[in-house]
């Protein structure tokens, strides 16, 4: 149980950091990329993808 919680937390954290990094490095100047248009959206999208990755393992 504890290992699962740690894996999910790490998935959320790493995904959020990668989403924020994607926003900072690539960004969106045209507004045509709604998932990474703002830092919070990038973090949310990255955290969701990290959660999916953690649940798939």
From TrEMBL:
Keyword Transmembrane helix (UniProt): yes
Keywords from the UniProt entry: Membrane, Transmembrane, Transmembrane helix
InterPro entries the record matches: DUF6132
Q: Which residues cross the membrane?
A: 37-55
Domain of life from the UniProt record: Bacteria
Q: Would you tell me the protein name for this molecule?
A: YtxH domain-containing protein
The upper taxonomy is:
Bacteria, Pseudomonadati, Acidobacteriota, Holophagae, Holophagales
């Amino acid at each position: 149980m504890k290992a699962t919680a740690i894996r999910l937390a790490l998935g959320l954290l790493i995904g959020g950091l990668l989403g924020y990094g994607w926003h900072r490095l690539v960004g969106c100047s045209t507004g045509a990329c709604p998932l990474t248009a703002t830092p919070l959206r990038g973090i949310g999208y990255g955290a969701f993808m990290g959660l999916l990755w953690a649940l798939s393992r």
